[in-house]
Design goal:
Elements: H1 11-24, H2 45-48, H3 50-73, H4 104-112, E1 121-122, H5 128-133, H6 138-145, E2 169-170
Parallel strand pairs: 1-2
């Protein structure tokens, strides 16, 4: 994919795609927000329970953050060296990266009462979980973290200033 401002051609985009695919990979049913293959599309009473939806979102946020952590500390997934033109010590995720692990219930609980178009969330530097809980697709958040133009801010905000104004999430305030 096209890159915005982080250098390295399409190589970082490939890593972002790999990380996003790993998060969205079908796994146990609770991770898979789509209907499992072979079902008629009906919703069981278990899936209608808000507690199950909340737990599924908390698990998605935790799994997402696990992948972000791995991408941040292991700069170039699947490579022994960085792509040509990139610094050897550079991470695939530029700048700082503050994870939301351990705080999943806060964003999920607050998002339950969030009124789109009425409420706004003014974030901190730990906004990944809030983005997901407020409905930003994981692929879009991951693209933003990797500096891709298909991120929620065109790859310009990264992790620390992550925002999705269309969903009521404003940039971090210090």
């Amino acid at each position: 994919g096209r890159m915005a401002g982080r250098g390295g051609g399409g190589k970082i985009g490939d890593a972002a795609g790999d990380a996003a695919r790993a998060v969205m990979k079908p796994g146990p049913r609770i991770w898979n927000f789509g209907r499992p293959e072979g079902t008629d599309g009906t919703v069981s009473s278990e899936e209608e329970q808000p507690e199950v939806r909340r737990l599924a979102m908390m698990l998605l946020i935790r799994r997402f953050e696990d992948h972000v952590y791995r991408a941040f500390i292991r700069p170039w997934p699947g490579r022994t060296r960085p792509p040509a033109g990139c610094e050897p010590a550079a991470s695939a995720i530029g700048g700082f990266c503050h994870l939301y692990s351990g705080q999943e219930a806060v964003a999920v609980g607050a998002a339950e009462h969030f009124r789109p178009g009425v409420d706004a969330y003014v974030g901190t530097f730990r906004g990944h979980g809030w983005s997901l809980a407020l409905g930003t697709p994981p692929r879009v958040v991951m693209a933003e973290l990797f500096g891709r133009v298909d991120g929620c801010n065109g790859g310009r905000c990264g992790s620390v200033n992550l925002a999705d104004p269309r969903r009521g999430q404003l940039a971090a305030a210090y």
